[in-house]
Amino acid sequence: MKKHYQWGMCLLAGLLGWEGCVRADIPITITATIIEPVCSVTGTDGDSQVKVDFGNVQLQDINTTQAQQPLRMQVSCDGAAPAGKVLKMLVNPAAGGVMTVGGVEVLGTSMTGLGIRLTDTAGTVVSPGYWTAVTGVDTTVKPDRSEVLLQAMLVSETTSDLTADTFSASASVVMTYV
Asked: Which SUPFAM superfamilies would you find in this protein's record (predicted)?
């Protein structure tokens, strides 16, 4: 009788929301993969390669805006910046490497002594090999594609050492939230 009384009390307690009579343990395993928004960079025409053609440049125009061309890219991110992070870009030099002109690191070219200085819309130098904040882009608004505009200027420490010839340079650009 006493046993029936205990079970009756547990049943009554269970109906009232008290779970002290019967317990069961079960292990729970929770897994997830945390991902950050991914950004892709293309030319403004959607092409995977951006070309900057300086055309014919007079030797005396090097280091001036006469030897400057826009470098337009399009960035598309699949989400807004995570808390505490901003959109940044990294210019990785390929052919030509890096050189220093006027104390600033710039893209090197195939022509000895000739470099390409990249600046953003605020005039801040975008040095190759360093993360630089992307200005003028809001990835939280639609459309989710924004244009990133840089200026590419031909620069040299000593233009008198340069000779008339063709040149080339190449780099890759990565944009992500850092």
From this structure: Bacterial adhesins
Q: Could you read off the pLDDT tens digit of each residue along the chain, which spans 178 residues? A: 555 555 555 555 555 555 555 678 899 999 998 888 888 899 988 888 999 999 999 999 999 999 999 999 999 888 888 888 889 999 999 989 999 999 999 999 999 999 999 999 999 999 999 999 998 777 666 556 789 999 999 999 999 999 999 999 999 999 988 8
Q: What is the DSSP letter of 83?
A: T
List the CATH number of the domain containing 93. 2.60.40.1090
**Order of strands across the sheet that contains 39-43:** 39-43, 68-77, 145-155, 115-119, 104-108, 98-101
Q: Which domain holds residue 70?
A: 39-177
HSE toward the beta carbon, residue 145, CA cutoff 13 A: 10
**What global pTM score does this model have?**
0.79
